[in-house]
Amino acid sequence: MGAWTKQLRTTDATAAGVIIMLVGLFLFAINDAMGKWLVASFSVGQILLVRSIGAFLILGPMLVARDSVQAVFRPEKPALQALRVLASAADVGFFYAAVAYLPLADALTFYMAGPIYVAALSHFFLGERSGWKRWTAIFVGFIGVIIVLRPSSASLTWPSLFAVMGSFSLAVQLILSRLLRNTSDSVLVTWQTVGVLIIGVTLSANAWTTPDLTSLIAMLMLGVVASIAHMMMTRSMKLASASLLAPLQYTLLLWAIILGVIFFDELPDLQVILGSVIIIVAGLFIFHRKKVVGAPVKPETVDRV
């Protein structure tokens, strides 16, 4: 009876973890759509600034409640922390610069390649050796990125390059997060939010448009929603196995397509769909190989808090 009860609790926890992860990813998709709507009227710097203030509406009480204020000012490995802050700011900034011109699904497709970049970088910076099967999947994933990128003189654009640079910045951020795994999530998120805030102040100095109340609330909600989504995804990973949760991140692309059609009248073309399918298959295979060879599997999720 005791074993059955324990198994039931484990099943319930796993189901809860999956649901929480899916809701968190949906919130990120809503957040991305809100950002695309706002960047049509306001500068990237202004959006970064106000959304960071919104994020602190959530982070501030969390830090006080957990008595983590002192830990924020004594982080481990300050040089790596600074690099992670720069990577995080680049990730967010390049994303908004990309969606100002690209369809939401196109931009998210580039970000779906983040786990592929992480797999390649992990070999060199984390000592996670990859066999020929995983390297083949990495190579195939890069082909998917190239298909979406359309590298020709007629179609290669700055917005596409912004999306590629943003997704690569995300991968660097995730690598640095592993190197800083002894630092609490609250400290990591606080410093990356500070970094985005500083970049926002710098970029918006000469590009400020006074928002109306609706737009101001929407920009603040970018930070609030992203923080809540981040906490939900962190919680889900404590309830369900990472190998189960990792593939769920690709629902972001589905939501991007749906929201793009509903709010922006955007529909990805066949080339984007083909590239995204290749990227997703390659990413899922990399997750599978990590599980088979016994390496720790952690969802490399799109995370722009």
From TrEMBL:
Record field: transmembrane: 12-31, 37-64, 85-102, 108-126, 135-152, 158-176, 188-207, 213-232, 244-264, 270-288
Domain EamA span(s) in chain numbering: 16-149, 159-286
InterPro entries documented for this protein: EamA_dom (IPR000620), EmrE-like (IPR037185)
Pfam families: EamA
Keyword terms, alphabetized: Membrane, Transmembrane, Transmembrane helix
Name of the protein: DMT family transporter
Upper lineage: Bacteria, Pseudomonadati, Pseudomonadota, Alphaproteobacteria, Hyphomicrobiales
